[in-house]
Structures are given as structure tokens and as C-alpha cells.
Amino acid sequence: MTSSLPATNTKSKPIRFDVKNIKIRDTPHKILLQNENGPCALLALINLLVLSSNEISSLGVVTKQELKKLISKDSIPITAATTTTTTTTTTTENEDGIKKKKVKNGKVSLEELIQILANNALQGNTLEDQDYQNDVDQLLHLLPQLHTGLNINPRFDGTFEDSKELSIFRLFGIPLVHGWVIDHDKYPAIYHLSYEDAQNILTEASEIEETNDADDKDKECNE
User: Fold this and answer.
1) What does the longest C-alpha to C-alpha distance in the chain come to?
2) Angle value at C-alpha 64, between 60 and 68, nearest 5 degrees
């Protein structure tokens, strides 16, 4: 196997994500929150894996278990300064003078998340499937930039244009859906198009309109 783990930049400031406690149908869960980077396909993938049922790929199930362990409170060291996942405990005093301990949730580093996804992907190709290996190669290529966003192209029929970005979700058995859907009977001419196709058509139409307007002005001047 020629694939290798994605390189990380040790000179830049480490990127960390806050852990948040939530409840879904009275069941407690922990998820990761976005930082200042904004759009974050990485966290979408991580939280989907953490919150999903076992109706995902075998690779997704294994990865889910490791991610849940990583972000759980019990696995977050309190005093180890060398770790990239931390938590703190503070003592507060209420109006009656009673002291209470308040535990602040930890932070999980980008590097830890990337390592879990990459390691599991590399170890998952036990049958040496070439399609699987191609998806792994794409994953390793995209992982270092995955926290800043992901370029996908939805089609108006409810599907997506196949791309290397989609291989990440396919690898972990996570289906994608979107709301950019139109009525085939009302708009048959564009039903088969994608978002980018529509953008290109609008751009071309605008350029044609500008050219026609310029031609009309030239005719008026000549007359």
C-alpha cells in the first residue's frame, strides 16, 4: 500500500474544537462545535458518525467507537500538559456561600481527528479493493483541508455530481441528501442539471445579453 498519513503543519497554531453535551430523545451525547473557520465538513462527518446508528459501513462503526472515546469526558486528561485534549474544573460560590464544582468540557484537536479517520481508512482495505483504495487516496488528500469546507455539486433531481469529495462520505457509509430539488413536470429542461451547470448557463446567458445590448447600441449609433 502506497498511501501515507496526511502531513500536518506543526509550526502553525493547533486547531481545537470544543466538546458540547446535548440530549437527543433524553439520551445524552457529545458533539464537536465549529471554531472560527466557519464551514466545516470535517465536523459534519465526525458528528454524523458519533450520532449515527450502526446502519453505516463497518469502517464507520469502528471509527465511530474511537471518536466517541476521544470526545467522552472520561477519556479527557485533566492535568497532562502534553496532550492535545484538555478539560478544566473550576469552583464557584452561589448566593448562599455553597461552593460548587463546574467542569468545563474539553477540546479535541484537529490532528487527533485526522489521525483517527486516516488510520482507520488505511487499515480497512482488508480485501485490497481498488475502488476502496481510490477513496482512501482521496480521503488522505482532502483531510488536511477538510476543516475549512468541502466543494460538492448537488443536482436538481436530488442526487450529487460524483466527485472526489463525495468519496469521503462513501468510505464511511454515510448517505448524503440535499434540498435543491425541483419538480420534474414543471421544469423538465433543467431537472437533469446540477447547481454548477445552472450557474454556468446563467453566466453564459448574461454574457450573451451584454453582447446583444452592445450590438444594439452600435446599430443605433450607425443609424
Assistant:
1) 91
2) 175
Q: What is the pTM of this model?
A: 0.66
Nearest to residue 139, comparing CAs of 159, 123, 153, 155? 123
Percentage of the chain modeled with pLDDT above 90: 18
Question: Which grid cell sits at 47?
Answer: 458528528
Domain borders along the chain are 16-92+100-171
Residue with the three cell numbers 485490497: 128
8 A C-beta contact, residue 133 and residue 18? no
Which H helix or E strand runs over 106? strand 99-109
Q: pLDDT digit string (tens) for 128-175?
A: 778 888 888 888 888 888 887 788 899 999 999 988 888 888 888 888
pLDDT of 196 over the 90 cut:
yes
Q: Which residues pair with 100 in a beta bridge?
A: 92
- DSSP-assigned states of every residue in 130-156: HHHHHHHHHHHHHGGGGGG-----BBT
* d(C-alpha 61, C-alpha 44), whole Å: 16
Residue 9 has which C-alpha cell? 503543519
pLDDT at residue 82, rounded to an integer: 30
Q: How far apart are CA 52 and CA 215, in angstroms?
A: 58
CB 126 within 8 A of CB 136: no
Query: Using the 8-state DSSP alphabet, how is residue 78 labeled?
Result: S
pLDDT higher than threshold 70 for residue 179: yes
Residues 198 and 192: their CA atoms lie apart, in Å, by 10
9 φψ region: left (φ > 0), alpha (ψ -120 to 50), beta (else)? beta
